[in-house]
Fold this sequence. Notes:
Elements (H helix, E strand, L loop, with lengths): L25 E3 L2 E3 L1 H12 L23 H10 L5
Amino acid sequence: VPTPSLPPAAHIEVIPCKICGDKSSGIHYGVITCEGCKGFFRRSQQSSLSYACSRQQNCPIDRASRNRCQHCRLQKCLRLGMSR
Length: 84
């Protein structure tokens, strides 16, 4: 039995993560994020870690560089509205 293909309008648009631009998985802590940023934010809130930036505190946070600076990634999460 052939499987009917979906019409073009039935394709679901993937919204990028507001933090890093990767594929989002839903709204987490108030912001559309990917699983990676959701987990990073959760871990940073569970432990009272203090991150430091070794540069000028304006590191780019995108899919390729999101793991390079925890301080700047957390600041972007907070700036874009993520909260417990």
